[in-house]
Design a protein that fits this description.
The protein is 48% helix and 23% strand. By secondary structure, it is of the alpha/beta class. It is rod-shaped.
């Protein structure tokens, strides 16, 4: 089922019964239309039925549309909110934007085609936000369950977040990790600078072997890879890095090299002894 093949749940709140009837008659074939004659009724209906889009008239007794939408924002932040007003009330619109976080506002009398398009566009925003949240949840699940250390850094290499494997490798808490920066731990800090420059220039960064010293002082040999995450709140690039602890492998390689060296030495000694005996 495509995005707009799914029926959109729309709540329209207006204290004038005639407006509610007209709205439902106009859009009942296009959307799942729910109506309420007051803010209190609207909130009660929202508690029972999830809505994609909530539309409210501004001028209502007791609670205005902007006040109602502010309450909807607090209680149901995923719902897309729209304001209808028949007055040139700029202050109400500003209040609805600032406090109610409305998607848009429309003037009355509304045009059916224009309002239908705006509702569909509002639902597209709702759908895209849902998709984004779903992807973020999946990413977080992979991030948390990865057996290899994965962490997020700013452009200076300061740790912003790290998965449990990262905390275990460095033997620190999440709070302590955020007080560290990767270049301070590397035996060759230039590797980090090279990696960030590659990301900024759009060039792929080839995995690199590196050694780092954990906060406890332990030396760790790692395979290091890094990917760009896009700009952070300050506009500077963020990066995700993953390191694979290859300390055991490196130590095994060193032992093997030592054994080979020792073997070569013994062979050379034995060879000289044999040559001396022949002479």
């Amino acid at each position: 089922m495509t995005m707009l093949q799914k029926k959109i749940n729309v709540l329209y709140v207006d204290d004038e019964v005639g407006n509610l009837t007209a709205f439902k008659a106009t859009f009942r074939r296009d959307f799942n239309v729910h109506t309420s004659a007051s803010a209190d009724e609207g909130l009660a209906l929202l508690a029972q039925h999830p809505m994609h889009v909530v539309i409210s008239d501004q001028r209502m007794p007791g609670t205005t549309g902007s006040q109602f939408l502010a309450m909807v924002k607090d209680q149901y932040p995923r719902t897309i909110r729209m304001l209808l007003t028949g007055y040139s009330d700029i202050e109400a619109v500003v209040e609805a934007i600032n406090k109610g976080g409305i998607y848009c506002y429309c003037t009355k009398p509304w045009d059916p085609n224009d309002l239908k398009l705006r509702i569909e566009q509002a639902y597209e925003v709702h759908h895209l936000r849902e998709q984004r949240e779903h992807l973020l949840q999946r990413y977080r699940q992979v991030f948390e369950t990865s057996g290899d250390p994965v962490f997020i850094m700013d452009a200076d290499g300061k740790f912003l977040d790290g998965n449990p494997a990262t905390l275990h490798l460095f033997a620190v808490s999440a709070e302590a990790l955020r007080g560290l920066a990767l270049p301070q731990l590397l035996d060759k800090p230039a590797i980090f600078q090279e990696a960030m420059e590659s990301l900024i220039d759009g060039r792929p960064f080839v995995n690199a072997d590196l050694s780092l010293r954990s906060p406890s002082g332990a030396m760790i040999d790692c395979l290091f890879t890094i990917t760009a995450l896009g700009p952070g709140p300050d506009g500077r690039p963020l990066a995700q890095a993953m390191i694979k602890d290859i300390t055991d492998r490196k130590q095994a390689e060193q032992r093997l090299r030592k054994l080979n060296d020792d073997l070569d030495k013994r062979v050379n000694v034995r060879t000289r002894q044999l040559l001396d005996a022949l002479e």
